[in-house]
Amino acid sequence: MTKKPLIISTDPGIDDVVAITIALFANDLDVKLIAATWGNVPLAKTLLNTLKLETFLQTKVPVVSGADRPLLRSAIDASDVHGKSGLAGFEFPEPDNSLLKPGIAADAIHEVVANSTEKVTLMQIGPATDFALYFMQYPQDLPKIEKLVIMGGAIGRGNWGPYSEYNVAGDPEAAQIVFSSGVKTLLAPLELGHEAYVTQSTLNEIKKLGRIGDMLYHLLSNLHDKTDNDGREIYDALAVGMLIKPEMYTIKPAYVVVDTKSPYAYGASVIDFDNFFNQQANVEVGVAIDQATFANWFIEAIKKAE
Ligand code: RIB
Ligand code: CA
Predict the structure, then answer these.
(1) Which terminus of the chain is more solvent-facing, meaning fewer CB atoms within 10 Å of its CB: N or C?
(2) Model's pTM, two decimal places?
């Protein structure tokens, strides 16, 4: 099985840690670069968290620093969900700073894509700032992008505003640049995370798997994205699942555009499945997931990491 080269843009963030860990140890993914961007917590913390996570996992994928703020709007913060550090509940080791690649994300992404003998897949599990900057700086790379998988947006109700989801609302203009890039794009909206949450019994199961399961247990036990029945919503894991086990998902094409004008729905992902806007579909949207299959896949994916 050939491994797909992958670049991750991330704002760890507890559910980012779940997605990054799964990606790093997946049989058919070859993570070439991790770009830490501002998001759940400020860039200094997301960058430190990325380095600390890889040090704990003993992986050696280069890490590069991304943008420290959105393109136009002021930065938002989700430390109430992920803790002040961004990784509440687990004490990671001091970072191996030799993993830090000098320079900026757009150039590092370009270097990977330009040097790759095959098309590269991008996974965006934070705000779109860095991939937007990369697409604007290196438009000539776009034909070498296999596809872009995004955790973001909401088909219905949001988690940052009535209609806006955190990643898209964090940088609406960047999200609009990414959705209109022409790159094959898959979207894992909030609804998938609401459906495929981690139950307490699954949490207890992964705790027994080993040091990585134990780390994830402690982080997820401190995550404030909870369901009414005390499940944990691990949104970003639904993006990496789309890459590894797409058959878990029901996918529908849609025209997706971001509201960058409204005072009330600023940052809303407007997802048109019914051609109201008479526009070509630009995104494959995950509209449902088989929760039981996801739960089993999740445990197996963590086992692979141990
Ligand atoms: O809305 C959920 C998204 O916002 C996830 O990526 C989470 O990590 C936060 O970045
Ligand atoms: Ca995230």
Answers:
(1) N
(2) 0.97
Q: How is the chain split into domains, by residue range?
A: 4-305
Closest CA to 18 of 235, 211, 186, 209: 235
pLDDT digits (tens, 9 = 90+) for 29-44: 999 999 999 999 999 9
Q: Is the CB of 165 under 6 A from ligand 1?
A: yes
If 0-12 CB within 10 Å is exposed, 13-18 middle and 19+ buried, where does residue 283 land? buried
Q: Scanning the structure block, which residue is given the tokens 């992958």?
A: 6
Ligand 2 centroid – CA 18 distance (Å): 10
Q: Residue 97 burial by CB count (10 A; 0-12/13-18/19+): exposed, middle or buried?
A: exposed
Q: What is the model's pLDDT at position 60?
A: 98
Domain boundaries 4-305, corresponding CATH code: 3.90.245.10
- At residue 234, the 3 state secondary structure works out as coil
pLDDT at 227: 79
284 lines ligand 1 (CB under 6 A): no
| Whole-angstrom distance, CA of residue 119 vs CA of residue 141 | 10
Site to probe by mutation for ligand 1, drawn from 8, 9, 10, 15 as the one with most ligand atoms within 8 Å of Cβ, is: 15
Q: Quick one: pLDDT at residue 36?
A: 98
Rounded to whole angstroms, the Cα distance separating 223 from 220 reads: 5
Instruction: Give distance in angstroms: CA of 82 to centre of ligand 2.
Output: 10
3-state SS, residue 18: helix
